[in-house]
């Protein structure tokens, strides 16, 4: 009787876990992990123990390991990956896949144990305003360490590849983040906020300075628009900057907080007059992919990353980093309704093959097999 065929075993760590979908990395682990399981891969995800009241060993075929962390704002994520990396190195996994460049230094552990590794470094964390001083220095150093200790560096955009080549003299493989486009989403969930289709502009993202919600709000309120500005998102901790925004009193502003129901979020995207994307740092952005997938007219901050995603203006308009530019963009968008219709109708065609989750999974699987010599 023939021995059963050996399965490729991949450990994934560095995010909150599975099936906890809260941010971009968590979504990627869900989309990637479920598809890898269907391709016959044994997938193990390291979950942040404190976030899971129930802790089943297997969920949808994915093995879940619940590792602890030192619970503090700056140490939680790093200590969780540290413990996860130790566990994985003492196990029989063939490949370790880590997300987040902050976990760069832990590659030295896997190197000592001779475990093949890949890391998705994603984003210019050291430039984000929330990591002032020591935090910024740490993320820059950690990203540099990632290029030294991990066997394969993965970025999700050509612009991020260029940055890593320039700063760290290290080439990386570009594998984009995937999207799940949807054609028809009804407006019914909008009733929850007394909204109607096309009656509002939309922002989706964490309320942190580098997403520039303050700039967009300021520019919008300077305009004569009769529409509303809906801000979806928050921060998971008490924050003076975010509170200042939420305390602005104007009937045109609507702060929804987090929207966790996927149908509600889909409806908010699908029926906005236009979607404002103020994200300043990072490669392929999940919120932007959702906006393309739901057929939004996109108004984006003019950055190299946003230029790449919108194919240099083919699938959106750009505004400069000033309230005056936002104001002009709002008024231009309202006066050119036909152009907004054109952007909506062509948005999904911006999701080329590289943003297809099945294609993305195939690329990752090839990386894992090569690393494991499978």
TrEMBL record:
Signal peptide: none annotated. Keywords: Transferase. Residues 9-179 form the DUF1972 domain. Residues 195-348 form the Glycosyl transferase family domain. The keyword Transferase applies. The keyword Membrane does not apply. InterPro entries: DUF1972 (IPR015393), Glyco_trans_1 (IPR001296). It comes from the Bacteria. This is Glycosyltransferase. It comes from Algoriphagus taiwanensis.
